[in-house]
Amino acid sequence: MFDLFYIPEIILSIGILLVIVIDLYIEKQKYFSYLLIQFLIILASFYALTEVPTHAYSSYEFSKFTSLIKFLLLVGALIIFHYTYRHLNYLNNLKIEYFTISVLGLIGTMIMISAYSLLMLYLGIELLSLALYALIGFNKASKLSSEAAIKYYILGAMSSGILLFGISLIYGFTGSIDYFEIAEQISSVNNNSVQFLGIIFGMIFITASLCFKFGAAPFHIWVPDIYQGSLVSTTILLSTLPKVAVFVVFLKLYFIPFITLAFIWSDILIFIGIASIVIGSIFALTQENMKRLLAYSAISNIGFIILAMGLVTDDGLNASLYYTIVYSFTALASFGIITHITSNSHGIEDISDLAGLSKTHPYFAILILITMLSSAGIPPLIGFHAKLMVIQALINNSYIILSVLVVLMTVISAYYYLRIIKTIYFENRENLISTYTRNNILLSINVILLLGLGVFPFIMFDITSYLASILVDISI
Amino acid sequence: MNIELITFIIFSSLLIFTSIKVITSSNPVLSAINLVFSFFLSAVLWLLLGAEFLSIILILVYVGAVMVLFLFVVMMLDINIAKKNAAYIKYLPLGIGIFIVFNILIILFFINTFENINYNAISSINIISESNTENLGFVLFTDYILEFEIAGLILLLGILSAIILTYRKNPNNKYQDPARQIDVRKKDRLKVIKGLKE
Fold first, then answer.
1. Facing A131 at nearest CB: one of B147, B157, B163
2. Which residues between 113 and 132 in chain B have a beta carbon less than 8 angstroms from any beta carbon of chain A?
3. In DSSP terms, which residues pair with A289 in a beta bridge?
4. Does pLDDT of B83 surpass 70?
5. For A163-172, what is each residue's pLDDT tens digit?
6. Residue A368 belongs to what domain range?
């Protein structure tokens, strides 16, 4: 019984209740509460790696796969909170509640990852989205922030409604919300019966809602506005943790309960993936705002992930896992750099705000150079291997025309990544750029890893193929 | 035609009517009252299905708590009656088009579905008594205890985010700090001056 207390979710949820109370008494020492939260996350990530009882609760799954993904998420959260504390402190907008809400959202992502029934999945998604609504509207001084919060709130509520409609259809036609029982029911249903049609109907509704949460193409309209309106620290959170969690939800839903329907969802996912890549690459060309540009780049990156997943083969699965980890790594670096810089005494908004950075702050200029080249997919960096794996998987499954299209879109997207580099190194404009630190060790390590893992890509190949192998273990 | 079907048709058509009134009436108070009506009517629909607990909860929570609070806020804020928005009319044809296509698809799908579905698939839940409330409580605190706890976390997060989004600290507020009041020593307030004579 007592080993249950070492489950990371329980550590975080009990700890965060304590932090809420303790923070009331030491309102002045914000740094102490912040350190307490960081300590909780370190403790939880430590216990995430230790052995847990497999399948301790019927609708909640513990396995090596979920533990490793949770570990990655917790480490990501640790780094994000480190950037966030300094960023908010610099903007004089520091409140400990920002971190408590983020930690509750983090618990939501962990519930989504471990969910083994549709009800648990819905609760995890709700916990995460509720935290995100509050974090997006956190900057009360800005009109854009409130607008973004209301937009995300209304659209998010609608997508939750669509998700619930899909779940109720699945429950009505299979008689269960448990992943395993749904899989059994679907495999025993006749392909021409009405029941089969109903299950597909429900599955498509769930797919639409999850694609909204992912920010994939036909449901992407919210992404640029929300990225632009929220604080940069919220934008990092939005572009890393929920994406990884929704990706794992996709994997578990499609490869456990809906695996026998693969001939249907594979086409849907390939279409969504291609549409995301095309829209993300083309619409980013005309963006002047840095955060909007990175939002469209996120849409096209998510397109790659979904496209690789839609192939329903081992190499596609490997490629999508690899791409997800690389993407969140790169997003952590690129948004992390932006949190450190202010231009003309406000945060970075337009790309032109960065002009002249190479003269005043060569360290940050080089970091942005490496990150952008990696996102564009230039060979020695890790972004190249990620894109290569997806295209290789496409060619192996004889989607030749699609792979040509994807390569073309990659070339187009290289233009806007290179435009940022051009602004930094070759444009002479007077900007009052300042940073609150000369360098940051975590940021440097993050960017050096982009280079180092790109030179030695086999380390990451091993990690992702291990992850893929243990994922297959649980689905049987 | 049995009595259940007649009741269903009457109440569901009233429900559709009031729901449309909620979004079309220009006075926010009228919208809110129509919403109250639609909650009552959907509670009746629950009753028809034999789910008496859910229908009572719907009235208690939504009508009793949420909508009364909402009406208070609307009355206090003195909101001007909104004019018919031009954008509303502009997007109406598109909305109606999507509505028709979507509903035709759903109706086509459902029209011959429910006669053929095999309900044996739905897994049997332990029914321990006649009462709906008792059954729900039993399932909620045994099979779904973890989900119940997580719902608690969601409520906590709701409270936290509502406070953080609306709370503004006013620097002009005057308040007492008991800790500082106790901390005061004699020498801070009292100054004894010696050697002063009239």
1. B157
2. 113, 116-118, 121-123
3. A350
4. no
5. 999 999 898 8
6. 4-475
Q: Quick: pLDDT tens for A108-165.
A: 999 999 898 999 999 999 999 999 999 998 888 888 888 999 999 999 999 999 999 9
d(CA A63, CA A114): 9
Closest residue in A to B155 (Cα–Cα): A127
Domain ranges in chain B are 1-79, 91-121, 128-168
Amino acid A1: pLDDT:
46
Fold of B1-79: Four Helix Bundle (Hemerythrin (Met), subunit A) (1.20.120)
State the ipTM, two decimals: 0.88
Alpha-carbon distance A152 to nearest alpha carbon in chain B (angstroms)? 15
The H or E element that residue A434 is part of is strand A433-435
3 state DSSP class of A189 = coil
Say how many domains are in chain A.
1
Contact: B161, A100; criterion CB under 8 Å: no
d(CA A232, CA A338): 7
- Rg of chain B on CA atoms, in Å: 29
List the structure tokens of A448. Answer: 């050096």
Smallest CA-to-CA distance from A223 within A164, A151, A277 is with A151
| C-alpha span between A60 and B146 (Å, rounded) | 9
Q: State the average pLDDT for chain A.
A: 87
- B192-to-B188, B195, B197 alpha-carbon distances in Å: 11, 10, 13
Task: Compute the distance between CA of residue A419 and CA of residue A423 in angstroms, rounded to an integer.
Answer: 6
Report the alpha-carbon distance of residue A88 to residue A96 in Å, rounded. Answer: 10
At residue A11, what are phi and psi to the nearest 5 degrees?
Answer: -55, -45
* Entry pTM: 0.88
CA distances from B77 to B31, B73, B80 (A): 15, 6, 9
Within 10 angstroms of residue A429's Cβ, the number of other Cβ atoms is 10
Give CA separation, A274 vs A299, A399, A401, in Å: 11, 12, 11
Average pLDDT over residues A438-450: 83
Q: Which residues pair with A57 in a beta bridge?
A: A60
Residue B86, amino acid = A
